[in-house]
Amino acid sequence: MENKLLIDNANTVFEKKDDKYFGYKSSFGDIVIGGAYSFRFVVHYAKTNQDVVIIPGDVNTVTTPVCTTLEERLWKPGAQAKACRDEIVEQAKADVEKLANKYGYYYAYGRNTKAEFIVNCEKRTVVTILRWIADSQIVAKGIAKAAPDACFNVHIGRAIALRRALDLAVPDEYLNAPQPTEVRVGDVVRGKYKEVYCRYRNRWKGGNYNVTIKEISEDRYHYVEGGYDFIGSANLTVIDDSRAEVSGE
User: Fold this and answer.
1) Which residue in 76, 103, 144, 195 could disulfide with 160, CB within 3.0 to 4.6 Å?
2) Domain boundaries, the chain
3) Could you tell me where the beta strands, DSSP code E, fall in 62-202?
4) Tell me: the pLDDT tens digits for 148-194?
5) Are strands 125-132 and 138-145 parallel, antiparallel or unpaired?
6) Which of 82, 84, 85, 52 is CA-nearest to residue 67?
């Protein structure tokens, strides 16, 4: 009865089946009943229509408001988003290992292949190359590239690129992982120089700098490259939270 009341009072209801979300009910009239929607759409929709309920596959089972599931943490700021991103990174690491067999090979196109991961942190890309074990002939490639306004993470990138090389579906949570909500040790961050007036060019001039967090003290961010910023006045954006030396991985 409680579950039925929850559905009846909700403005919008989706029914989840596998990786799709089907329109079940909409008081706004902008959801096609029976129409299939992606996880990305549901996340975006719930940002602007908070009264959303997801039924996990069967109307007779327990209905789950998105505020208690992984889905909702993807758009909630603060600690929940931080925990959710960490969850997704760990999921991506495990995914890469799980897709391999006990010998570390990936089964693709009828044979076992070995995977080569090429990481370019400057271009914010990961490329997976699958090669035949016998003669190292390239079988397939997969590419993952972080959006210009998104934080790069090599572990999520590897999982995406590998799945694309294997011609497998990429989970929506990899593509829609929440952005970091705080600066942590090991993060690559982008800071902004204070604008100063340039008499020569007759205009205000500022700029950006990229540095790696070495230590966070009570009032300062200390950088691997040297120098520091005061936490209270720093204007930092996390651009890479891989926190790992990727060249040999």
Assistant:
1) 144
2) 2-73, 79-175, 188-240
3) 64-65, 106-108, 111-120, 125-132, 138-145, 188-198
4) 889 999 999 999 999 999 999 998 888 888 888 889 999 999 988 76
5) antiparallel
6) 52
